[in-house]
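ok trying this again, last paste got cut off
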Amino acid sequence: MKKHGCTLLICLLVLSLVLTGCAGFGGKKGMYTPGTYTAQAKGYGGNVSVAMTFDTNAISEVKIEGPDETPAVGGKAIEQFPGKLMEAQSADIDGVSGATYTSKAVLTAAANCVAQAKGEDINKKTPVADGTYSGQAPGFGWTGMLKADVTFKNNVITDIKIVEEQETYTGEIFYTVLDKYIPRILEAQSLAVDGISGATLSSNGVRGCVEQAIEAAGGRSSEWYGEVAKSTKTVKKEGYDVIVVGMGGSGITSFLSAAQAGAKVFGIETTAKLGGQSATTSGPMAINSKIKMDEEFGGKEYIDADAVYKVWNDYCGADAKPNMIRLAIDESGETLDWLIKDWKFQFTPMSSFVLSPYPDWKIWCYYGGETKNRFGTNKTYMFENAVKAAQAKNSAAEYMLELTAQELLKDGDEVVGVKAVYHDGTIYEIYGKTVILATGGFIGNADMMNEYLDGPANTIALTVDDGDGINLGLSAGGALMNPDVPPMVHINQVANLIKNNDLDANGKQVLTSLAIATDALAVDRTGKLWNTKEEISLAPRYRYYNIYTAAQIEDIKTKGLKKVNKSMFLDQGGTVEAGKPIANIDEILEVGADYQNVLVGDSAEALAKAIGCDGSTLKGSLKGVEGPYYAVICAGYAYATCGGLNVDAAMNVLRADGSPIKNLYAVGQDSMGVLLSSGVPYTPYGGQAQSWALTSGRLAGANAAKYALGK
């Protein structure tokens, strides 16, 4: 009996160990399998990565990276999340105000990590109810949100229909989201599908709508981020005369000119549509177009080209290349005539630039046509029609959208082509005799903005202009020309547009008015007084701070704004009246602070800490004005950078010793530094950048074709 009793006792002990997970007598099984787990999700600007370390029953460490999120909003949110997740010991927490997409990405990736640590099937989706559910989220448009109806059947998304949007109010690129992004979500049944290049924020908006619809249907949106397979194929294309990298204004005119000369041309474009930043501009400068002279000025020249040259050259001083300024002026009218006559572009009558100190100079025209959006006429169809016409005349002219150049292909030191990646991951090796770089400068590259300028700027329209062309040129031995020319900043607004309903349009207008007022006490990032009528492109980090005291805010509450200031292009639609009390000004400032548009300090020292400047400097600028203080941030919004690669009159990229790289060319914002000067913003009249894009492209295309064809 003793022997059998002993055996039974041993069996019971073994069973106990098994049931407790070998955690000791009477212990409990842990919640997690110890280790570090990682996951990614789509944020505001790109992927957000989360790494979470678990011990048996707790989250012990959280690391988050989001290099493409905006530093002021998404970056600050990322800084807060490790502590929040550790404190809650859960991914089921609230996001950070003002950082909707970054917050959602962090929490989605964190939930994935938790599921992995628990041993759950991360590919399993909580069932959603059949039916149609709505979602609403901010996109690119700043006057209203996107709204979508999403239909589910048998746990599958069967339809995504946009029922309300303001995206087309700002341009044509939203149609690429409708035509490409939505079908890709439906096909993949995953929100991990890459957004459309050039339409990232609109893609984010659609994704946000679908996430909300999934939650409304009883599902968990974090479970709809299944991995989307990428192609591993490599495709080789050979025998081209001219390869054009970038199909915005400068790239398209390069393409048209080379095709017209009989060259076999291949165009590469990162975004899902033609036109690039040129589709958001008003129009080009054109000096003495023969067509315009005949139509509008009785056959006479309408501007003294020598006078324009003198003003331009004197303005830029010794840094610019006089021969290139002369070239830009003398060829601009010919380019306009060529676009009208050969490619059926439409332009309005010549006019002066509203902000020019030379109001009698009628050197600027708008793109013509009838269909309008916030940036003027719809121009995409003109670019598309011109490219189709070139292909009809030259069957050897090709292009691909959503194809991004990665590096120049070389044979020794000679450039022989371009390596590029398609949106699905396919690698293309494209070989040709010449390459034209037309990628639009580097406004979207934070590292280059830090290296050559005063850091990243707020941007208007496309941010895919991330320096690819300039870096490709440098890799081939090219040299830079004035990369530190201040960016084209034409618009002022709050630093971080509030696109959702946390404030109504009137509240947003009040915040805008405070930010861009020109009669407020203002300081720059160093705490020094700033003249609000100065070029904001010269302000440190392209922003300044309008400072209001508590007494001034109380005055606005009871008496209203003395003047209502509206932002050009970026107005959000409010109808605030001057002199009308604003009873909810405290709420407006509080929301503004949530979005990093308003900094608050009870003392000069506290405000200096919020701004990040020297306390004694700020105190001196305040000149004894008593707090508390509210600093409303005014930020400049840039179209593009101006400096780039050095080129000669043929648009050949030049080496540091001034010798040309015979088969490599650079146009548009990739080379506009030859026309401008370090430390001097742009030029004192409008349309010069667009004119250079179109003119340099026309000349480069012809010259590249001539070289490639041995003429």
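PB: full thing came through this time. The chain has four domains: 35-117, 131-223, 281-488+640-692, 491-638.
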